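Run: sequence + orotidine-5'-monophosphate -> complex structure.
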Amino acid sequence: MQRFEPMVAVDVETKQEALRLFDKLSSDTDHQPIVKIGMELYYAFGPGIVREAKGRGLTVFLDLKLYDIPNTVERTMRVLGALGASFVTTHAAGGTEMMKAAKRGLLAGAAAAGRRQPKLLAVTKLTSIDEQILHDEQKVAGTLIEAVQNAAHLTEAAGLDGVICSAQEVEAIRQVTGPDFLCVTPGIRLNLDNKDDQKRVVTPAQARELGSNAIVVGRPITLAKDPMKAYNEIRQDFMGEQD
Ligand SMILES: O=C(O)c1cc(=O)[nH]c(=O)n1[C@@H]1O[C@H](COP(=O)(O)O)[C@@H](O)[C@H]1O
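>> structure
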């Protein structure tokens, strides 16, 4: 099974903070750290922030979670495909037609810019959602696991590379998807008592045991007194015997 380096969600306010983290992570020359650039950084600093990360040799996960009508998503993905990110996101809730359009746009944009084909991942159910929200607010009848499983099945059928889910659902997803389908899992905490706004959380070691291909970790690293120490501890816990 393919296991990626931990994906560090660089959810910070200033460019200076982002660049400081990029510098620290890119100093780890033994591994290939992955930085996740999300809406906060991208909306503030635009494509230049992707170039800053790539210029330091970092692998970029561009997490903008596109969710709109197929035509809009396809055209926007074409723009994003040119940026050279290795992973890009959309929402499975947009439906298979939208996901197929997303993939078409992304691959066309990457090809036109002479970039390698990025992997496209779809969010199943945000890890800040639990069964109560699913039933009481979203009026979804089945279990959360069933909703995530269905989203993963549709994502694979649309030709995407994988999903974003909680590691808690990976085993169920593996029952309905092929062996190469990726499960990328945020909601990671070393201390499960400190969930912040997350609902479905596991430790890095649990994510490994449950079969995650990659973990996404933000605040446990960005808010740590020593972010590199936290990164290395989480990395060791997730990569386990692979190191
Ligand atoms: O797409 C994502 O990366 C994502 C999906 C999801 O369901 N839950 C989720 O937390 N994320 C992202 O993962 C990161 C988690 O951050 P922390 O909770 O600080 O570790 C954030 O950047 C979220 O945007």
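>> summary
The radius of gyration is 17 Å. The CA atoms of residues 221 and 231 lie 6 Å apart.
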